[in-house]
Write a structure and sequence with these properties.
40% helix, 5-stranded parallel sheet, single chain, 5-stranded mixed sheet, alpha/beta
């Protein structure tokens, strides 16, 4: 604009033939679409909040089940006289707790606003996570069958956008199921040759190999009248109040933004099938998923400074580290940690990020003014704070809740790198 601000516009060019003129004329119509985009963003946000509300209902049901398992096994472990049985119950409590943590992480994917961040990722583990999350919201009488390839496959994508798109398609399939009769959803993922694609002329930009994701339901299908319009913004076949009509439109935009295509057709004898194709990244190998190693105990006298404003977390972490053979000093906030570091020799700092007065990152930076190579591990329960913590040769980070084996390995890695 004249004041230097930027705005969104669309350009529509039309060819016009004029009698007795060999060359055609072209007319360009420029339209400011700022308000249109703002309106679409607002409705997309409403759709997102609706998805969260639906997901929360399923999570609340399953979360209460997990809590029942934790409480029940904790009660039984108190009176258990068989040490082996006690250990089994405690291991079950640990596993259930991490399942609950995974649910919370799934919900955070929807709750946070983020700028698109595309990167090469191993797509099959991501799809497994999406399907596990989708199960939380499926009724108990829905039969879900999944077929995934074993090959390591890479996709250049924004993980949050792919997750949201896939979850919406699975939710859509669930909504389409009949109240009576067979209620089933089938998900199949396979590598497909682009030359075999029936839409190769229309989608000529596909790579030689594509990842084909098929989601089928046993519903009544989509009428021939509605099929051409299901990806149109604000078009919906659901009842009033059950969706804004932007879900499939947003999914369509997400797939296109990742260089893919999405197609829909009815299947016999009943049901509907969505086929999503993404170009695979075959030039890079996925990073292998490292298996958890055994817990690493202290091999020498090492003093670790624990900084956390939550007393329960601080005391528990202190007992864990001391059981591994480390000496510990605790601080409840950043300034106290700085004062302790001036008075005692500290080999490593484990600090929360979000704390009153001085946060963990700032306090460690101040400590490093006197001890530049001081190793530090940042831990946080805030998903949006995780990326703010640096990660380099002398700094690592970890999300709460964490596996003790992961923490012990990170401590060992940091201490060994400092001794080199």
């Amino acid at each position: 604009r004249k004041d230097g601000s930027e705005y969104l516009e669309t350009l529509h060019i039309k060819k016009i033939h004029v009698n007795h003129c060999e060359k055609p004329y072209y007319i360009g119509i420029i339209t400011d679409i700022t308000l249109k985009k703002e309106h679409e963003a607002s409705l997309a946000h409403t759709e997102k909040m609706t998805s969260i509300a639906t997901l929360v209902g399923g999570i609340a049901h399953n979360f209460n089940n997990l809590l029942s398992g934790i409480i029940g096994n904790a009660y039984l472990a108190q009176d258990e006289r068989n040490p082996m049985k006690t250990n089994e119950r405690l291991q079950l409590i640990e596993r259930i707790s991490f399942d609950a943590s995974d649910m919370v992480k799934s919900l955070l994917i929807f709750a946070r606003n983020h700028a698109p961040k595309k990167k090469n990722i191993a797509i099959i583990p991501l799809l497994k996570q999406v399907i596990e999350t989708a199960k939380l919201n499926l009724p108990d009488d829905v039969e879900l069958s999944v077929k995934l390839p074993d090959e390591p496959l890479m996709l250049y994508c924004d993980t949050a956008e792919i997750q949201q798109a896939m979850l919406h398609l699975i939710s859509n399939a669930s909504d389409a199921l009949p109240e009576q009769g067979k209620r089933a959803i089938r998900i199949q993922v396979q590598i497909s040759d682009w030359q075999e694609c029936c839409n190769q002329q229309k989608y000529g930009s596909c790579s030689a190999h594509v990842l084909k994701i098929t989601i089928q339901d046993t519903g009544c299908g989509i009428s021939e009248e509605n099929l051409p319009h299901i990806f149109d913004p604000f078009f919906s076949t659901k009842e009033v109040g059950k969706g804004t009509g932007l879900g499939l439109s947003t999914t369509f935009s997400t797939v296109q933004a990742h260089g893919g295509s999405i197609h829909v057709h009815n299947i016999e004898p009943v049901g509907c099938s969505f086929d999503i194709c993404f170009p695979l990244t075959l030039s890079s190998k996925p990073h292998p998923i490292s298996e958890l190693s055994s817990i690493k105990s202290a091999t020498s006298t090492t003093t670790i400074l624990i900084v956390d404003d939550e007393m329960m977390v601080r005391n528990t972490l202190q007992q864990i580290l001391e059981s591994l053979g480390y000496q510990t000093i605790c601080a409840s906030q950043g300034q106290e940690a700085i004062d302790i570091a001036k008075q005692h020799h500290i080999d490593l700092v484990i600090s929360d990020i979000v704390m009153p007065i001085i946060n963990g990152i700032s306090s460690v930076n101040i400590m490093r003014q006197n001890q530049p190579k001081l190793p530090a591990i940042f831990i946080t329960g805030y998903d949006h704070q995780y990326d703010q913590a640096p990660e380099d040769k002398q700094t690592l980070r970890i999300s709460k809740p964490f596996d003790i084996r992961v923490l012990s390995q990170k401590i060992a890695d940091l201490l060994s790198s400092q001794s080199l």
